[in-house]
């Protein structure tokens, strides 16, 4: 089970910048309100809590078929539909394409150079395409799907649909209509599960199975963490405690939350967290800003700012106890004092020392930080991390008094895009864009 050590958030350890036990005690009524919203399922979108109980039989069956007849697996999605699968891929099968098949490509943008490069590499005759959009109308995903559909039609004609798997809403949307029209293979995203909370749905689980990861292990970890976070006592509930602390620090002006896992494979996890945190909490002039990093790399590029820059950050370390493998540092250059101290130690010793040293340095400088310890980077514990941060995010949104499940600002941008691309019903948005262009002409150098 992953654990939370919050000592370096407390005044007793870091001094006046920390929280006191009394402050946390006094916040209990507010924390309890947030807890009750979760327990009583005040929001339909809390259905992500039910994902550990889903039936994975169809996911496993489609994954087996994909592995049997494909050398390439191309995932089309954006936002949670790509960030979650990529976090699974990089955490659980690092350097996958150099070691295993099907080789996996995730196309989550509409940069034409990227799709062109992918199409040069893959053999479409040996490719399965997984297109993921819950709404069925996400412009970027639909555009890339249309390109791949045309390419597959050239190769397979009326049989092109057999090379696609749609992951979308069970009943509605353009992609569901295409599934019905052509008999395309499909998986369902539960209606009450939003995109950024969907990694433990077929959105992430199909890719997991394709790369050889047992999706049941991800769900088992998520289930155990969900149970851990159902504890009513604030002092015994790690998700509620961390949410309360980050909320309190945010109210005091520490509105930037740095997440720094000490594992290359968890770098994409930190990017997944950034969408979850920013899109869920940034509303009505409120919110907390996520900041993705990876240790030890960013000790050499960003730690200086965290140590002596503006006092507006809380740093969340993710420590890995067992990397599964290790390398000894050999006994060489024995006559050089600047190097020989490393001899005989291991890389895992060094990376853990770097992580703990950064914690201590920040604490000594009075900069709040906390440590989440992961026993190992495997499916079970990754499932725990996903569920833990999703619950922390929901709690924090409830404390802020906002809806942590919608994204009205994102929708506004989408509507302007629809207008610019000529979608019916959005003509007025196109006019707004054109007027904006006129206003900005004289400011261009």
Return Rg in Å.
23 Å
Q: What number of structural domains do the residues give?
A: 2
Give the total of beta strands.
Answer: 10
Strand order, biggest sheet? 1-10-9-7-8
* Broad CATH class of the largest domain: Alpha Beta
Provide a count of the helices.
18
Proportion of helical residues: 40-55%
Strand content: 5-15%
What does this entry look like structurally?
- This protein is α/β, with parallel strands linked by helices.
- It has two domains: about 5-40 and about 220-400, Glucose-6-phosphate isomerase like protein, domain 1 (Rossmann fold); about 55-190, Rossmann fold.
- It has helices at about 10-15, 20-25, 30-40, 55-70, 80-90, 110-120, 140-155, 175-180, 200-210, 215-230, 240-250, 265-280, 305-310, 335-340, 345-365, 380-400, 410-420, 425-440, and strands at about 5, 70-75, 105, 125-130, 165-170, 185-190, 255-260, 290, 315-320, 370-375.
- A five-stranded mixed β-sheet has the order 1-10-9-7-8, sandwiched between helices. It has a five-stranded parallel β-sheet with strand order 3-2-4-5-6, sandwiched between helices.
- It starts with a strand and ends in a 5-residue tail after the last helix.
- The mean pLDDT is about 95.
Task: List its traits.
445 residues, alpha/beta, Rossmann fold, 2 domains, 5-stranded mixed sheet, 5-stranded parallel sheet, 18 helices, 10 strands, globular
How are the elements arranged and paired?
Layout: E1 3-5, H1 11-14, H2 21-26, H3 28-39, H4 57-69, E2 72-76, H5 80-92, E3 103-107, H6 112-121, E4 127-132, H7 139-156, E5 164-168, H8 174-182, E6 185-188, H9 202-210, H10 215-228, H11 238-251, E7 256-261, H12 267-281, E8 289-292, H13 303-308, E9 313-322, H14 337-340, H15 347-364, E10 369-376, H16 379-400, H17 408-420, H18 427-440
Parallel strand pairs: 2-3, 2-4, 4-5, 5-6, 7-8, 7-9, 9-10
Antiparallel strand pairs: 1-10
Helix pairs in contact: 3-16, 4-9, 5-9, 5-12, 10-16, 11-16, 12-16, 17-18
């Amino acid at each position: 089970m992953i654990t939370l050590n919050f000592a370096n958030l407390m005044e007793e350890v870091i001094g006046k910048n920390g929280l006191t036990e009394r402050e946390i005690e006094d916040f209990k009524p507010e924390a309890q309100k947030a807890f009750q919203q979760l327990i009583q399922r005040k929001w339909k979108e809390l259905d992500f809590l039910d994902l550990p109980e889903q039936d994975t039989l169809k996911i496993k069956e489609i994954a087996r078929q994909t592995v049997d007849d494909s050398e390439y697996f191309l995932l089309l999605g954006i936002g949670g539909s790509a960030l979650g699968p990529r976090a699974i891929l990089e955490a659980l099968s690092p350097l996958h394409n150099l070691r295993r098949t099907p080789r996996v490509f995730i196309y989550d943008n509409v940069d034409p150079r990227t799709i062109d490069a992918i199409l040069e590499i893959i053999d479409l005759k040996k490719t399965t395409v997984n297109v993921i959009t819950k709404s069925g109308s996400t412009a970027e995903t639909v555009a890339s799907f249309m390109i791949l559909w045309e390419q597959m039609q050239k190769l397979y004609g009326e049989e092109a649909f057999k090379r696609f798997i749609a992951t979308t809403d069970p009943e509605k949307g353009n992609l569901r209509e295409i599934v019905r029209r052509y008999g395309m293979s499909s998986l369902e995203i539960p209606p009450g599960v939003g995109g950024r909370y969907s990694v433990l749905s077929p959105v992430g689980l199909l890719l997991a199975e394709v790369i050889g990861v047992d999706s049941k292990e991800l769900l088992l970890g998520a289930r155990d963490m969900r149970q851990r976070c159902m504890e009513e006592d604030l002092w015994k509930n790690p998700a509620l405690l961390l949410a309360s602390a980050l909320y309190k620090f945010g109210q005091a002006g520490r509105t930037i939350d740095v997440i720094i896992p000490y594992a290359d494979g968890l770098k994409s996890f930190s990017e997944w967290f950034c969408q979850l945190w920013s899109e869920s909490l940034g509303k009505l002039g409120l919110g907390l800003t996520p900041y993705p990093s990876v240790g030890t790399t960013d000790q050499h590029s960003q730690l200086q700012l965290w140590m002596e820059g503006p006092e507006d950050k809380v740093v969340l370390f993710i420590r890995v106890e067992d990397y599964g493998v290790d390398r000894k540092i050999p006994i060489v250059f024995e006559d050089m004092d600047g190097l020989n101290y490393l001899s005989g130690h291991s890389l895992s010793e060094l990376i853990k020392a770097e992580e703990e040293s950064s914690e201590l340095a920040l604490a000594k400088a009075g900069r709040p930080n906390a440590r989440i310890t992961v026993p190992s980077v495997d499916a079970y514990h990754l499932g725990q991390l996903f569920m833990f941060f999703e619950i922390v995010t929901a709690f924090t949104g409830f404390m802020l008094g906002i809806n942590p499940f919608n994204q009205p600002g994102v929708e506004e941008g989408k509507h302007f895009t629809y207008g610019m691309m000529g979608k019916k019903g959005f003509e007025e948005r196109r006019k707004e864009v054109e007027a904006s262009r006129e206003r900005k002409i004289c400011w261009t150098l």
